[in-house]
């Protein structure tokens, strides 16, 4: 089975993020970059499907700059078979990214796309859904369990207050939630093999797509510093404070 | 011509093994120290990283990767950053696999290396250290005497990691004929080989180590590592010392990171104690020791990777690191004050483990 796993390069969740003084973005010096953790879960699921089926092709896809190769190599070291980097040096919004991915899906013809439910940098949670819509494929978002039998797929997904089970025909787009699996560590032999695997670069301009941004980031701001807690004397006082100060009841 | 730049693969190996050490090994360190046991599931997960299988040739089921002492040093440091006992446990199979890989005859490679290419943790070890106050690896008291087409081994070994779980032990012994040290691949159930009680140690309490007695232990001539040509024991010792030293850097680094973070959090007189010169200077000295120690390890590994025996460099590194790791771990206990002495913080465990580095030889290899 051919599976495509789009991955995004994001700051390590353990990194302390600093916003640039002019609010235009984040300071990228001294940041450690990693594969978006939800995309890593998506890759793990793709590798498990391949292992269970006893074969197949797991391809990674990134849309970004030269440096994104590092994360693609990490994904190859985990066990992906090959990687595609669509080189785009300009920032692209979610709609443009989804358009690029739809084009690559059209060329690659995978039977399944598994992607993280969102990237932990901007938390947009849009690309998987947009991609499915553009392709006219079924989509199963926030997957916590995936089962495949032939061309039939069953996904258990997390919804408010419980879980929902969806059944649909492949090809489809699945977005991975946290509880889907625990990704493996790359092995040392896997790391040594990664360099010999195919990493294809495609210039984004060669795709002939309308990538003009529809979204403009006006400013980024850090959340307000958390205030220290305080003790209250009675339930009445607590209710009063929650009502008049915190305004949560 | 001089460069400290890691290759892309080395960088990835360092990050992957480091992540494994922080996320999987570190949380298991204190329970292993308390219970004396390392969970089999953790050893199995570490095995999946391919710590042993990588350099074994493809024809024997391995990956056929180039084996580099510098990469081995990175791996040993990162694993020991998580925990020294667990690092020594998961690296122990290398003590047999790597000398066989590098110095074994074709028959020995065929016979012994395949067992390391499966999916399950394959315990193996080497018996080097002897329970004598004047133990010197170059003047061993364990003797191998040639008797027709076999060798008879006699002597006592100690600190043999995982001995009770291994099918085969690589025993290092001095030749009664020429005095040089040679290796012998001895099946655990060979008559004359007796594994004693598990040793009770000050540190490294998660690691199973045993005394091994050899009394008229007879093995065939084919058990001699490298056959008639023998093995390069000097090189084996250099590799072992680089690994031990690298693990010491990992222990020191762990202790330093913990003490630094504590000093930035812990307040006295209204300010973090890290802002007090008495503490800040101590932390700076610890950081200097760690960097200096690591550079000695890397230099020795670099010599090994050039095919040189690195006898002196590896000894200097190993000797310096043993003192540096002890000093850094002791300072970490000091930075934590009274908290450093109680078992709720790991620094007292690291101090006990670091003390072992000056007492122990042959716990790992690169």
Q: What key phrases describe this protein's structure?
A:
heterodimer, A: 249 residues, alpha/beta, Rossmann fold, nine-stranded mixed β-sheet, 6 helices, 27% strand, globular, B: 366 residues, alpha+beta, Butyryl-Coa Dehydrogenase, subunit A, domain 1, Butyryl-CoA Dehydrogenase, subunit A, domain 2, Butyryl-CoA Dehydrogenase, subunit A, domain 3, 3 domains, seven-stranded mixed β-sheet, 11 helices, 9 strands, 16% strand
Quick synopsis:
The complex is a heterodimer of chains A (249) and B (366). Chain A has 249 residues and is of the alpha/beta class.
Description:
The complex is a heterodimer of chains A (249) and B (366). Chain A is of the alpha/beta class and 249 residues long. Chain A has a single domain (2-223), classed as HUPs (Rossmann fold, 3-Layer(aba) Sandwich). Chain A has six helices and eleven strands. The longest helix of chain A has 17 residues, at 37-53. The relative contact order of chain B is 0.14. Chain B has three domains: 8-116, Acyl-CoA dehydrogenase/oxidase, N-terminal domain (Butyryl-Coa Dehydrogenase, subunit A, domain 1, Orthogonal Bundle); 125-229, Beta Barrel (Butyryl-CoA Dehydrogenase, subunit A, domain 2), CATH 2.40.110.10; 233-358, Up-down Bundle (Butyryl-CoA Dehydrogenase, subunit A, domain 3). By secondary structure, chain B is an alpha+beta fold. In chain B, strand 2 and strand 3 (150-161) form a beta hairpin. Chain B is globular. Chain A binds chain B through residues 73-74, 77, 184-195, and chain B through 8-9, 12-13, 16-17, 19-20, 48-51, 53-54, 62-63, 65, 75.
Could you tell me how far the N terminus lies from the C terminus of chain B, measured between alpha carbons in angstroms? Answer: 24 Å
Which stretches of chain B are low in confidence, meaning pLDDT under 50 for 5 or more residues running? none
How large is the count of helical segments of chain A? 6
Largest interface: A-B, 15 and 18 residues
Q: What kind of sheet is the major sheet of chain A?
A: 9 strands, mixed
Secondary-structure element pattern of chain A, one letter each = EEEHEHEHEHEEEEHEH
Q: What separation lies between the terminal Cα atoms of chain A? A: 52 Å
Structural class of chain A: alpha/beta
Rg of chain B, rounded, reads 21 Å
What is the succession of H and E elements of chain B? HHHHHHEEEEEEEHEEHHHH
- Helix count from the secondary structure assignment of chain B: 11
The average pLDDT score of chain A comes to: 94
Named CATH architecture of chain A? 3-Layer(aba) Sandwich
Oligomeric organization of the protein chains: heterodimer
